[in-house]
Amino acid sequence: MRRDPKVICPFCHQQQPLAKTLTAQSNQNVIFTCLHCHESIRNIVTSKGE
Ligand SMILES: [Zn+2]
User: Fold this and answer.
1) Looking at the 3D structure of the chain, how many domains does it have?
2) Domain containing residue 33
3) How far does the centroid of ligand 1 lie from the alpha carbon of residue 27, in Å?
């Protein structure tokens, strides 16, 4: 089974799919935008592959 990576918003603590909340910029910055509270963070650290 394949699990989609999830991210927990530090503002509202809602768990949501990584793919829908992260926007990769051309300069390699990654912006997280919460689907619930619409807060955004630049350059969040994501953990890949545990
Ligand atoms: Zn949020």
Assistant:
1) 1
2) 6-42
3) 24
Stated pTM of the model: 0.68
pLDDT digit string, tens, across residues 10-43: 999 999 998 899 888 888 788 889 999 999 988 7
Position 21 in a domain:
yes
50 Cα–ligand 1 center, Å:
24
DSSP characters for 1-50? Answer: -----EEE-TTT--EEEHHHHEEE-TTS-EEEE-TTT--EEES-------
DSSP-assigned beta bridge partners for residue 7:
16
Beta bridge partners of 6: 17
Could you tell me if residue 24 is inside a domain? yes
CB atoms within 10 A of CB 5: 13
